[in-house]
């Protein structure tokens, strides 16, 4: 057993984003942390697998890592970090890796952290909803676990719409072979029982519908700096549209975002927040691998200083802010000589 702090990313990220000002460059972050007195080895997930016995001998080490928007590669990362997390501290914790592009885990984390402020349901299939729960009031919001920019988010007005949408989405996920089996199941009754449990599983979320939201906000938090964008609600739609900085956030929005950030206890955070009649609701969040285009588009950020919010000009660089976020978090974790686990 030995100790060695790691930064693990994909070979693709390492090669593509090197010296890219609009993306996080982990080569730069490793050097920045080294200058602050923290020794981290930069490696790739591929390298870890090729020398798996060596890396699973690590203990009491800090591991900074990235995720992926590709579902298969993300599952590959999850498999690897499942073992490395046993005797080491992942930054952020393993639950936040699972929550990346997974709205189901996000809902479970909201409950665990005391952040659930709207009714929700997380179901493995439609049959489970029909058997173990019921929708008492429509409309509701239907969400598949993955998807961005509202692509897999739908307003459901009645039971029939819910059932038809579920079946449509389910069929779209099937392979050619799966579609043939599904067709046989519909046409031939003898296949219904045999395949019922397996073929109809497709996890989804039902959330309480927010009536007449005033605004939708995107809040990115780096190094205790809050970068805020307003997203206008699209006409004749409940989903939000293009991000702008035209509307300044209220203290209520900033305080709400700050409270979530403190409860989740992560180095940095991306939040989707809806506001309605001075009330705020967390929609989704990500504590890893969120879009960084916002940084170059931001002319200002907000910080909480001496009990009040201040608006500041954005003069720093993306990699410096990510480095500071990691450094601040590690200092907090190591306070008192004890490594904490997020």
Can you walk me through this structure?
The chain is an alpha+beta fold. Helices cover 39% and strands 25% of the residues. It has helices at residues 11-16, 26-35, 45-50, 52-55, 71-84, 94-99, 103-112, 126-132, 159-173, 176-187, 190-199, 251-264, 293-297, 318-333, and strands at 6-9, 41-44, 62-65, 89-91, 120-123, 140-144, 153-156, 204-208, 215-222, 225-233, 240-244, 268-276, 279-286, 300-305, 308-313. Strands 11-10-9-12-13 form a 5-stranded antiparallel beta sheet. It has a 4-stranded parallel beta sheet with strand order 2-1-3-4. It has a 4-stranded antiparallel beta sheet with strand order 5-8-6-7, with helices on both faces. A hairpin with an 8-residue loop joins strand 6 (140-144) and strand 7. The two termini are 23 Å apart. Residues 338-342 have low confidence and may be disordered.
Properties at a glance:
four-stranded parallel β-sheet, disordered C terminus, single chain, 342 residues, alpha+beta, 14 helices, 15 strands, five-stranded antiparallel β-sheet
What is this structure, in a nutshell?
This protein has helices at 11-16, 26-35, 45-50, 52-55, 71-84, 94-99, 103-112, 126-132, 159-173, 176-187, 190-199, 251-264, 293-297, 318-333, and strands at residues 6-9, 41-44, 62-65, 89-91, 120-123, 140-144, 153-156, 204-208, 215-222, 225-233, 240-244, 268-276, 279-286, 300-305, 308-313. It has 342 residues and is an alpha+beta fold.
């Amino acid at each position: 057993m030995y100790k060695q702090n790691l930064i693990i990313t994909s070979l693709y990220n390492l090669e593509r984003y090197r010296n890219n000002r609009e993306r996080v460059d982990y080569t730069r972050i490793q050097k920045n942390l080294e200058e602050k007195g923290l020794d981290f080895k930069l490696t790739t997930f591929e390298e870890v697998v090729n020398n798996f016995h060596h890396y699973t001998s690590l203990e009491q080490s800090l591991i900074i890592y990235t995720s992926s928007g590709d579902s298969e590669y993300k599952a590959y990362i999850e498999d690897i970090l499942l073992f490395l997390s046993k005797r080491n501290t992942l930054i952020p914790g393993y639950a936040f890796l699972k929550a990346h592009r997974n709205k189901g885990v996000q809902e479970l984390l909201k409950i665990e952290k005391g952040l659930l402020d709207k009714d929700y349901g997380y179901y493995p299939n439609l049959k489970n909803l029909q058997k173990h729960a019921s929708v008492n009031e429509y409309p509701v919001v239907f969400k598949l676990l993955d998807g961005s920019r509202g692509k897999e988010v739908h307003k459901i007005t009645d039971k029939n719409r819910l059932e038809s949408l579920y079946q449509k989405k389910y069929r779209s996920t099937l392979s050619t072979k799966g579609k043939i089996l599904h067709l046989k199941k519909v046409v031939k009754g003898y296949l219904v029982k045999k395949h019922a449990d397996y073929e109809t599983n497709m996890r989804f979320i039902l959330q309480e519908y927010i009536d007449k939201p005033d605004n939708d906000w995107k809040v990115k938090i780096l190094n205790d700096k809050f970068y805020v964008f307003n997203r206008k609600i699209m006409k004749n739609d409940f989903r939000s549209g293009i991000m702008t900085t035209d509307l300044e956030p209220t203290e209520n929005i900033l305080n709400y975002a700050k409270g979530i950030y403190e409860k989740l206890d992560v180095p940095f955070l991306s939040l989707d927040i809806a506001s309605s009649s001075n009330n705020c609701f967390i929609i989704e969040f990500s504590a890893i691998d969120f879009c960084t285009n916002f940084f170059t588009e931001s002319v200002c950020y907000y910080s909480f200083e001496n009990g009040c919010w201040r608006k500041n000009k954005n003069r720093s660089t993306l990699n410096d802010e990510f480095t500071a976020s990691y450094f601040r978090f590690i200092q907090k974790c190591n306070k008192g000589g004890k490594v904490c686990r997020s």
